[in-house]
């Protein structure tokens, strides 16, 4: 498990709205995303499929995304090499500041080793923070 937190200069409700927006528009938050398709949607979860191009290789992933204030979980349903989930959690620090924490709990399907890529988690959170503060 890898975790990173940052303070976002925005109120809790704005950050929450942007995390919900992220479910439907991940290309604004995750590098290399394309061909996003919402396959199923209801008040409890969203099933999303998309392509991710990383270092010249394209992967297709399918996720079940659950969201309850103030946590969004991206559970991998299908991926060629990894399994697990990512959590995006937020909590109010003040009227105009929100702590946002990304937790990645991924495992290599073949070796069953944890994937501990702290820089990826940190960069993903910073990209999300910048998007929220700008919009």
Annotation keywords:
2 helices; globular; seven-stranded antiparallel β-sheet; 135 residues; alpha+beta
What's the layout of helices and strands?
Layout: E1 2-8, H1 12-24, E2 33-41, E3 45-54, E4 57-68, E5 71-78, E6 82-94, E7 97-108, H2 118-134
Antiparallel strand pairs: 1-7, 2-3, 3-4, 4-5, 5-6, 6-7
Describe the structure.
This protein is an alpha+beta fold. Helix content is 22%, strand content 53%. The protein is built from two helices and seven strands; from the N terminus they run βαββββββα. The chain has helices at 12-24, 118-134, and strands at 2-8, 33-41, 45-54, 57-68, 71-78, 82-94, 97-108. The protein has a seven-stranded antiparallel β-sheet with strand order 1-7-6-5-4-3-2, covered by helices on one side. Strand 2 (33-41) and strand 3 form a beta hairpin. It is globular and about 45 Å long. The N and C termini lie far apart (30 Å). The mean pLDDT is 94.
Q: Over the alpha carbons, how many angstroms does the gyration radius reach?
A: 15 Å
C-alpha termini separation = 30 Å
Number of strands: 7
Strand order of the largest sheet: 1-7-6-5-4-3-2
Strand content: over 45%
| Helix proportion range | 10-25%
Order of helices and strands: EHEEEEEEH
Largest sheet: 7 strands, antiparallel
What coarse outline follows from CA principal-axis ratios?
A: globular
Tell me the number of helical segments per DSSP (H or I, 4 or more residues long). 2
Structural class: alpha+beta
What's the pLDDT, averaged over the residues? 94
Unreliable sequence segments: none
């Amino acid at each position: 498990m890898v975790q990173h937190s940052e303070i976002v200069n925005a109120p809790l409700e704005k950050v929450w709205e942007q995390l919900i927006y992220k479910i439907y528009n991940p290309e604004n938050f995750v590098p290399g995303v394309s061909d996003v398709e919402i396959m199923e949607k209801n008040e409890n979860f969203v099933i999303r499929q998309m392509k991710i191009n990383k270092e010249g290789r394209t992967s297709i992933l399918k996720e079940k995304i659950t969201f309850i204030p103030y946590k969004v979980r991206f559970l991998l349903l299908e991926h060629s090499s990894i399994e697990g989930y990512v959590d995006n959690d937020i909590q109010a620090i003040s009227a105009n500041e929100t702590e946002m924490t990304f937790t990645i709990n991924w495992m290599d399907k073949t070796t069953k080793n944890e994937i501990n890529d702290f820089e990826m988690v940190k960069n993903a959170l910073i990209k999300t923070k910048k998007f929220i503060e700008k919009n």
